[in-house]
């Protein structure tokens, strides 16, 4: 017992080194302290919400500042304002932010609860009982059924399928929808669904400690004193879904946070926008400016007290704690620090959150981003990053399931020199295939797949008339594969393919009349044009990444031995007979045409073998299969002996269907100067093919640069060669970046944008990337990649995806967006996708189609950025204007820290009087509508360069605020100076002056909404009824409050000590000097702003100003032209369209997929 306890302590302290568990032994497993199956993505709970949320909120400088300010206001010696002027706004801001955080976290709790409360069948005391997912423990045996998600990482014990095979879909993990196959150990599969045997099962498992490596699992099962090796093929991972399997049993190995899916999720970091970081810097600037002003006013107070105040102590006696003018000045410094606190507006952050919440609402409710087939809208999972969507410079995208649908469709083919698949009209002109194009009928074939579509009738006619080459071509497709067929209901065939490519080819052969019906280790049954034919399977020469081809050798009913081969044209054309040269040339032209359309191509060939030759070859093959040394290379050599002198049959073209409008989307994003990098685990040929099909690469580029080295030296040579091609001077010591690195090699810095000498694309392999990232070549890699139009990184691990994203963020200091659909993309995201919900749970924004990205960025993102910038410009301006009036007033009140406003006006200024106008425009403003935003992607550029709000724009707001405050103080002073009312009474008293100043201030800042906020062009401001209501309603509301608080029959009578402006409203609103002050102040403050907005595009034009001129010159929004399929010219081929791992070949030849069960005797074990 003590041993296990010590192991448990070891797990807790030093980290788990190895997992050790026993089936059906809860007491034993509990000693190791393994977690249960609960997942938690939420941040708060009912106990830690208040302290943790307050702690996070007070990390903001402004909130911490106001907390300090509140403490200062409680000190009577320096307090110049009532404590409630600070505490009320602070409580409101903290409460609103806390409510928003609580709502966001509540959604996470709901998602967690939904997952944790799913039910699963668990073996308990000899019977199956339902249990919630969160209560599953390591060592439990659970039962999963068809279409049920896998509860935890479990060791497969047995299943309903032959030899305990289980089919799973891994879309949640890697975005791939093609089925994978898992198989249980022979010793556990014998238990089948016998609950007695399963209950008695007490096997012990030692395996890897929890880790995030999706492609690795090693362990040992000890059962009945014998050891059995475990690998990934026997492990079902959480996030997978059971398919085409009635039931299966599994032993829980990893639970909850220990599962590979959750291990890949990583720890979510709190993301702050560039504007958040900028605001923190600006708040520090404001503190310094505030300190300087307080210092100046304190000096002024000291001088005034020494020269004047000292002699008026009889009238204005000093306090007991004031011994000199110096001490009085120190106290006055802190008094002004309190009065001028509105330089740092506490309501700024809560207003920002409201705007972000509103813009998130627009994303969630956008019907043009709603995906009807899955009934799923776009969703902003976080409300803190909306304006970042308007500043994206780099997009990192997964390929499978993100750019593509991962649905392979047989599109075209070339058979014996004839091209099939194109459609022509009655004039002989090729026409584009659309939804209206008539499909060919497969009514002659009862076993045809009704979902299969083809449009060229000439191929069907060739099949019907018995064209021998066409028949041989489809016969080869029906035989040369590792697809397994299931027919649970007669006539309803289900194909299990390790690769969707193979599934597409076999399905095509099926529809044209060559139907794979069934197979065994020795035979393949094919229904050819209604006639059942059984071929004897003699050998499968399975696919590998080195061979880039696969072959089968079969014996026909006519006793002929035939080899059928398909693979990369770059490989197969070298294996053809010389007599095939003319046919090969024609077929290669067809392959070029297929590749120019972005299709995945491969070549099909055959060879008839002499029986004696095959017999000798087969004997050598059998001998090599039992070799222990260098087995793989010997087998490959044996394969090459038979895969030669081939006769060419033709070629196939498969469309890895892109999602809708992917090429147009990438083209549009490129116009917006957004660079797109595709980070994929797929093979290089497929990734490059998709890059061309999706417009990431174009045929008119100056070239593709490949980095494929497997060591540091080779990779460095390839990267330097790429840099030399694009920018030769980048390798010189005089290059600015090289010079900087030579002088300050360890200092952080930002790599500027560099212009290449041409238009290039970069393709880099995963192992080359590893060398570059780990071999101090990251800067060379980054500089080369950033100068390219598009970048493809293939064969990447999830960790490498995250490393690439982090590399760009580290040195480019730009906004990046990572987009993916599977758990292998989670570390990169930290989403879009049609398939994987694990990426959704870890993303900031989710939507179902890649083409929604252009709307998310160019419409919602750009609007959000523009609105936020306009809001900040106005907000800082109105607070500078409001606060600096105290500065000018100080010269007339003896620097006594007397406020120019009523205390309640100070309290309500930001919270009530001025918040609605700017919020109205910040939530509803559109400088141009969505049509223009998508039509002119160039409008996106200012966000990338952060032109609309930066330190320079902030200084403009400060200067404008200083000027406006000067006008707003001296214009009212001038209008009331030595003025009298009609009854002969003076109106230059403090309270009347205060009311005139604050009323003029409100009129000015309200009128500035539609000048400061316009920001780009006056003609494009988007006004709605809500804008008008908020703008003019705020002024109306102010006058209502004015009459309520400042009348002689209002609350002043009830609470005279708190509301001290008794009767001021009635006395002041009737004098003409008030309205003169308002008119003069508005004119003098607004006219310069209008003039600047008018002259700015003329004197200091931006690149987008020409676009605005174009938009203004067009009377009506343009509509998009009818999209046609993008064609590309050139000679490139994807080389081959195979799965990037070995198929079902060994499984087929072993016979382990057949309906007969494991033999009960003579079982051998591995020790």
TrEMBL record:
<keyword id="KW-1278">Translocase</keyword>
<feature type="binding site">
    <location>
        <position position="825"/>
    </location>
    <ligand>
        <name>Mg(2+)</name>
    </ligand>
</feature>
<feature type="binding site">
    <location>
        <position position="502"/>
    </location>
    <ligand>
        <name>ATP</name>
    </ligand>
</feature>
<dbReference type="GO" id="GO:0005548">
    <property type="term" value="F:phospholipid transporter activity"/>
</dbReference>
<dbReference type="Pfam" id="PF16209">
    <property type="entry name" value="PhoLip_ATPase_N"/>
</dbReference>
<feature type="transmembrane region" description="Helical">
    <location>
        <begin position="81"/>
        <end position="99"/>
    </location>
</feature>
<keyword id="KW-0067">ATP-binding</keyword>
<dbReference type="GO" id="GO:0016887">
    <property type="term" value="F:ATP hydrolysis activity"/>
</dbReference>
<keyword id="KW-0547">Nucleotide-binding</keyword>
<feature type="binding site">
    <location>
        <position position="825"/>
    </location>
    <ligand>
        <name>ATP</name>
    </ligand>
</feature>
<dbReference type="InterPro" id="IPR044492">
    <property type="entry name" value="P_typ_ATPase_HD_dom"/>
</dbReference>
<feature type="transmembrane region" description="Helical">
    <location>
        <begin position="58"/>
        <end position="75"/>
    </location>
</feature>
<feature type="binding site">
    <location>
        <position position="398"/>
    </location>
    <ligand>
        <name>ATP</name>
    </ligand>
</feature>
<dbReference type="Pfam" id="PF13246">
    <property type="entry name" value="Cation_ATPase"/>
</dbReference>
<comment type="similarity">
    <text>Belongs to the cation transport ATPase (P-type) (TC 3.A.3) family. Type IV subfamily.</text>
</comment>
<dbReference type="InterPro" id="IPR036412">
    <property type="entry name" value="HAD-like_sf"/>
</dbReference>
<feature type="binding site">
    <location>
        <position position="680"/>
    </location>
    <ligand>
        <name>ATP</name>
    </ligand>
</feature>
<feature type="binding site">
    <location>
        <position position="682"/>
    </location>
    <ligand>
        <name>ATP</name>
    </ligand>
</feature>
<feature type="transmembrane region" description="Helical">
    <location>
        <begin position="1029"/>
        <end position="1047"/>
    </location>
</feature>
<keyword id="KW-0812">Transmembrane</keyword>
<feature type="binding site">
    <location>
        <position position="400"/>
    </location>
    <ligand>
        <name>Mg(2+)</name>
    </ligand>
</feature>
<feature type="transmembrane region" description="Helical">
    <location>
        <begin position="995"/>
        <end position="1017"/>
    </location>
</feature>
<keyword id="KW-0460">Magnesium</keyword>
<dbReference type="GO" id="GO:0005802">
    <property type="term" value="C:trans-Golgi network"/>
</dbReference>
<dbReference type="InterPro" id="IPR006539">
    <property type="entry name" value="P-type_ATPase_IV"/>
</dbReference>
<feature type="transmembrane region" description="Helical">
    <location>
        <begin position="1074"/>
        <end position="1095"/>
    </location>
</feature>
<dbReference type="GO" id="GO:0000287">
    <property type="term" value="F:magnesium ion binding"/>
</dbReference>
<dbReference type="InterPro" id="IPR023298">
    <property type="entry name" value="ATPase_P-typ_TM_dom_sf"/>
</dbReference>
<dbReference type="InterPro" id="IPR018303">
    <property type="entry name" value="ATPase_P-typ_P_site"/>
</dbReference>
<feature type="binding site">
    <location>
        <position position="824"/>
    </location>
    <ligand>
        <name>ATP</name>
    </ligand>
</feature>
<dbReference type="Pfam" id="PF16212">
    <property type="entry name" value="PhoLip_ATPase_C"/>
</dbReference>
<feature type="domain" description="P-type ATPase N-terminal">
    <location>
        <begin position="22"/>
        <end position="87"/>
    </location>
</feature>
<feature type="binding site">
    <location>
        <position position="400"/>
    </location>
    <ligand>
        <name>ATP</name>
    </ligand>
</feature>
<feature type="binding site">
    <location>
        <position position="398"/>
    </location>
    <ligand>
        <name>Mg(2+)</name>
    </ligand>
</feature>
<dbReference type="InterPro" id="IPR023299">
    <property type="entry name" value="ATPase_P-typ_cyto_dom_N"/>
</dbReference>
<dbReference type="GO" id="GO:0005886">
    <property type="term" value="C:plasma membrane"/>
</dbReference>
<feature type="binding site">
    <location>
        <position position="600"/>
    </location>
    <ligand>
        <name>ATP</name>
    </ligand>
</feature>
<feature type="transmembrane region" description="Helical">
    <location>
        <begin position="281"/>
        <end position="304"/>
    </location>
</feature>
<dbReference type="InterPro" id="IPR023214">
    <property type="entry name" value="HAD_sf"/>
</dbReference>
<protein>
    <recommendedName>
        <fullName>Phospholipid-transporting ATPase</fullName>
        <ecNumber>7.6.2.1</ecNumber>
    </recommendedName>
</protein>
<dbReference type="GO" id="GO:0140327">
    <property type="term" value="F:flippase activity"/>
</dbReference>
<dbReference type="GO" id="GO:0045332">
    <property type="term" value="P:phospholipid translocation"/>
</dbReference>
């Amino acid at each position: 017992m003590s041993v296990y306890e010590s192991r448990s302590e070891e797990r807790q302290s030093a980290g788990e080194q190895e997992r050790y568990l026993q089936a059906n032994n809860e007491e034993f497993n509990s000693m190791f302290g393994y977690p249960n199956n609960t997942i938690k993505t939420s941040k708060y709970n009912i106990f830690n919400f208040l302290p943790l949320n307050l702690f996070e909120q007070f990390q903001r400088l402004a909130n911490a500042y106001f907390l300090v300010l509140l403490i200062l206001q409680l000190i009577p010696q320096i307090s110049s304002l009532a404590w409630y002027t600070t505490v009320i706004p602070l409580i409101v801001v903290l409460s609103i932010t806390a409510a928003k955080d609580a709502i966001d976290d509540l959604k996470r709790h709901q998602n967690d609860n939904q997952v944790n409360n799913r039910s699963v069948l668990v073996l308990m005391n000899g019977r199956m009982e339902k249990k919630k997912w969160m209560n599953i423990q390591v060592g439990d045996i659970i039962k999963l059924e068809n279409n049920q998600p896998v509860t935890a990482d479990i060791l497969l014990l047995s299943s309903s399928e032959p030899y305990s095979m289980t089919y799973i879909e891994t879309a949640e993990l890697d975005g791939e929808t093609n089925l994978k196959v898992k198989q249980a150990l022979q010793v556990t599969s014998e238990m089948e669904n016998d609950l007695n045997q399963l209950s008695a099962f007490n096997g012990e498992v030692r395996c890897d400690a929890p880790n995030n490596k999706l492609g690795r699992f090693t362990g040992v099962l000890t059962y009945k004193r014998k050891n059995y090796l475990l690998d990934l093929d026997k492990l079902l991972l959480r996030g997978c879904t059971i398919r085409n399997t009635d039931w299966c049993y599994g032993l829980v190995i990893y639970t909850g946070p220990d599962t590979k899916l959750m291990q890949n999720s990583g720890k979510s970091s709190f993301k702050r926008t560039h504007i958040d970081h900028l605001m923190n810097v600006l708040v520090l600037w404001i503190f310094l400016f505030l300190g300087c002003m307080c210092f100046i006013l304190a000096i002024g107070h000291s001088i005034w007290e020494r020269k004047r105040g000292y002699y008026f102590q009889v009238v204005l006696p000093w306090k007991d704690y004031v011994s000199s003018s110096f001490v009085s000045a120190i106290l006055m410094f802190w008094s002004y620090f309190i009065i001028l606190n509105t330089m740092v507006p506490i309501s700024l952050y809560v207003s920002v959150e409201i705007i972000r919440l509103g813009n998130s609402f627009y994303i969630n409710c956008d019907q043009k981003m709603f995906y009807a087939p899955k009934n799923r809208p776009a969703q902003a999972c976080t409300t803190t990053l909306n304006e970042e969507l308007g500043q994206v410079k780099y997009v990192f995208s997964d390929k499978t399931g993100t750019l593509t649908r991962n649905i392979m469709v047989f599109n075209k083919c070339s058979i014996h020199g004839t091209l099939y698949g194109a459609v022509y009209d009655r004039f002989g002109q090729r026409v584009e295939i659309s939804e209206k194009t008539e499909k060919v009928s497969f009514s002659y074939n009862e076993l045809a797949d009704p979902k299969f579509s083809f449009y060229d009738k000439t191929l069907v006619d060739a099949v019907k008339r018995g064209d021998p080459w066409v028949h041989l071509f489809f016969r080869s497709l029906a035989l040369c594969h590792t697809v397994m067929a299931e027919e649970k209901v007669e006539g309803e065939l289900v194909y299990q393919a390790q690769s969707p490519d193979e599934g597409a080819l076999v399905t095509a052969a099926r529809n044209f009349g060559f139907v794979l019906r069934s197979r065994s280790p020795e035979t393949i049954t094919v229904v050819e044009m209604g006639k059942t034919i059984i071929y004897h399977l003699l050998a499968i020469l399975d696919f590998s990444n080195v061979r880039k081809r696969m072959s089968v050798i079969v014996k026909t009913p006519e006793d002929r031995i035939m080899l059928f081969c398909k693979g990369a044209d770059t490989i197969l054309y070298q294996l053809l007979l010389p007599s095939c040269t003319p046919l090969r040339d024609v077929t290669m032209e067809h392959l070029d045409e297929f590749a120019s359309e972005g299709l995945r191509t491969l070549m099909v060939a055959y060879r008839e073998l002499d029986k004696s030759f095959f017999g000798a070859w087969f004997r050598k093959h059998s001998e090599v299969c039992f070799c222990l040394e260098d087995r793989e290379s010997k087998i490959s050599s044996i394969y090459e002996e038979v895969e030669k002198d081939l006769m060419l049959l033709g070629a196939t073209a498969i469309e890895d269907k892109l999602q809708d409008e992917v090429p147009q989307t990438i083209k549009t994003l490129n116009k917006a100067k957004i660079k797109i990098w595709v980070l994929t685990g797929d093979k290089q040929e497929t990734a490059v093919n998709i890059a061309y099909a999706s417009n990431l690469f174009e045929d008119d580029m100056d070239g593709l640069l490949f980095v494929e080295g497997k060591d540091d030296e080779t990779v460095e040579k390839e990267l330097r060669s790429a840099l030399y091609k694009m920018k030769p001077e980048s390798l010189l010591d005089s290059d600015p970046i090289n010079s900087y690195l030579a002088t300050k090699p360890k200092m952080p810095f930002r790599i500027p944008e560099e212009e290449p000498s041409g238009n290039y694309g970069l393709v880099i392999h995963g192992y080359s990337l590893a060398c570059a990232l780990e071999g101090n070549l990251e800067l060379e890699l980054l500089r080369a990649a950033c100068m390219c139009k598009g970048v493809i990184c293939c064969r990447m691990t999830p960790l490498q995806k995250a490393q690439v994203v982090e590399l760009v963020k580290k040195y480019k200091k730009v906004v990046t967006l990572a987009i993916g659909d599977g758990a292998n993309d989670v570390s990169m995201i930290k989403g879009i996708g049609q398939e994987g919900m694990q990426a959704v749970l870890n993303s900031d924004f989710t939507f179902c189609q890649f083409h929604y990205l252009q709307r998310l960025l160019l419409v919602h993102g750009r609007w959000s950025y523009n609105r936020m910038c306009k809001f900040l410009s106005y907000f800082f301006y109105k607070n500078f204007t409001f606060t600096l009036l105290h500065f000018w007033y100080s010269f007339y009140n003896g620097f006594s820290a007397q406020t120019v406003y009523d205390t309640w006006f100070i309290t309500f200024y930001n919270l009530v009087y001025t918040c609605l106008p700017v919020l109205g425009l910040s939530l509803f403003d559109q400088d141009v509508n969505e049509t223009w935003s998508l039509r002119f992607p160039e409008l996106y550029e200012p966000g990338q360069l952060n032109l609309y709000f930066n330190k320079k724009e902030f200084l403009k707001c400060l200067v404008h605020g200083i000027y406006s405050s000067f006008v707003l103080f001296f214009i009212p002073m001038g209008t009331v100076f030595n003025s009298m009312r009609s009854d002969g009474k003076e109106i230059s008293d403090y309270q009347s002056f205060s009311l005139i100043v604050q009323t003029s201030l409100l009129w000015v800042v309200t009128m500035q909404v539609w000048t400061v906020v316009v920001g780009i062009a006056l003609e494009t401001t988007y006004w709605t009824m809500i804008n008008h209501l908020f703008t003019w309603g705020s002024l109306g509301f102010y006058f209502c409050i004015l009459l309520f608080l400042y009348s002689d029959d209002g609350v002043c009578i009830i609470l005279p000590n708190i509301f001290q402006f008794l009767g001021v409203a009635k006395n002041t609103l009737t004098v003409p000097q008030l309205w003169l002050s308002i008119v003069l102040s508005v004119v003098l403050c607004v006219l310069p702003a209008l003039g600047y907005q008018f002259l700015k595009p003329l004197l200091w034009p931006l690149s987008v100003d020409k676009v605005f001129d174009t938009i203004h010159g067009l009377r009506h929004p343009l509509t998009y032209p009818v999209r046609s399929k993008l064609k590309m010219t050139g000679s490139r081929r994807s080389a081959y369209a195979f799965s990037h791992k070995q198929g079902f070949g060994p499984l087929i030849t072993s016979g382990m997929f057949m309906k007969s069960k494991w033999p009960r005797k003579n079982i051998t074990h591995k020790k």
